[in-house]
Amino acid sequence: MSAYRISHISAGLAAVVVGYSSAVILVIDAARQAGATPEMVTSWLLVLGLGMGVSCILFSLWYKMPVVTAWSTPGAAFLIGAAADYTLPEVIGSFVVSAVFSIIVSQNRGLSRTIARIPPAIASAMLAGILLPICLGVFTEAAVYPLQTVLFLAVYLLGSLFFPRYMMLMLLVLACVISFSMGVLDDVTVTTPSLIWVTPSFSLSATIGLALPLFVITLLSQNLPGIAIHHAHGYKPDHNTVLSGLGVIQLILAPFGGFTFNLAAITAALCMGDDVDPKPGQRYRAAVVAGVGYLLMGAMASVVVVVFLSMPPVVVHLLAGLALLATLQASVVRAMETPEHRQAATLTLICSASGVTLAQLTAPVWGLAIGLLVVMMRAYPFRRHQNR
């Protein structure tokens, strides 16, 4: 049995750094929008680190394949815009229900195929609509904070050209420097992180308005790409078992703030390349290292939360908006690449971005419904003509 190599360690830790630096601010903001106290926000990050760490290690060792897990970044972005309309117990209850959906669907291949048949254009348009308001935050305060906005944009543009893998890490460093210069990190105190239980509350409106879209967004934008990444690198673990296991982990940890656990895509690819190990059968070690890194980040949850909660709102908005810009771009491109779905995708995007809540259903739910309705309406005359 060969030992762990430097390449395994560097790839695993790179996956953790990229995952946290690109999305941790979104998780913190989502928790705050849901009504979580600073101690509860710490609990969210602690339990997410524990869940991701344990699942990475267990599944990778079990299958001897790199199985990297993550939280749902699009799911966190969705919660930022939707969670404020519900009480914290209802939000926690929606995490539980979403976990139940995940377990049921992962055990039913027919349901999995049915959901996977949602046109990619509509799913991408819904995701783009969720991300758009957050990305607009990059410029909403530019008139008041022009220097900060220019600095962030400069680092983002230069980083995307010369050091794309570590671009978000550099933005995090810039955020800390600017926050320190504005005097908000001078009196930071750190406490030991602890798990805080919130008793779930269940309602039909939260199930339809939060749990269902959270599940669909995670499945379409995280788990399906994660499966594709595995197949692209020649790995074929039992994904139904993995997704069921992740659903069980979410079910157990949801009351503490474990809002999603899913397959990773981008960070998983960091652990699967030829530079990780010339032998594909040994690359699972990088995912194990990533799991250990997630456990360490969970243990440091108090530090992470205190630093981010102390940052000025303008810094938070710049970080979150720039972190999601590439995802927004990819979603818009995919939403509009199929001509026959462009009208439906446009309506889905606009509705999902509107923030409207009707009949206690959130904007992305209405956006998805409108998009699917338009797709069916446009397909019906074609089918009727074909049958003549």
List the helices and strands and how they pair.
Blueprint: H1 6-33, H2 38-63, E1 69-70, H3 73-82, H4 88-107, H5 109-116, H6 120-140, H7 146-162, H8 167-181, H9 204-232, H10 239-253, E2 262-263, H11 266-269, H12 284-299, H13 301-309, H14 313-323, H15 325-336, H16 342-354, H17 363-387
Antiparallel strand pairs: 1-2
Helix pairs in contact: 1-2, 1-3, 1-8, 1-12, 1-14, 2-10, 2-12, 2-13, 3-6, 3-9, 4-9, 4-10, 6-14, 6-15, 6-16, 6-17, 7-8, 7-14, 8-14, 16-17
Give me a quick take on this structure.
By secondary structure, the chain is mostly helical. The chain is built from 17 helices and 2 strands.
What does this structure look like?
This protein has 388 residues and is mostly helical. The protein has one domain. Helix content is 72%, strand content 1%. It has helices spanning 6-33, 38-63, 73-82, 88-107, 109-116, 120-140, 146-162, 167-181, 204-232, 239-253, 266-269, 284-299, 301-309, 313-323, 325-336, 342-354, 363-387; strands spanning 69-70, 262-263. A two-stranded antiparallel ribbon has the order 1-2. The termini are far apart.
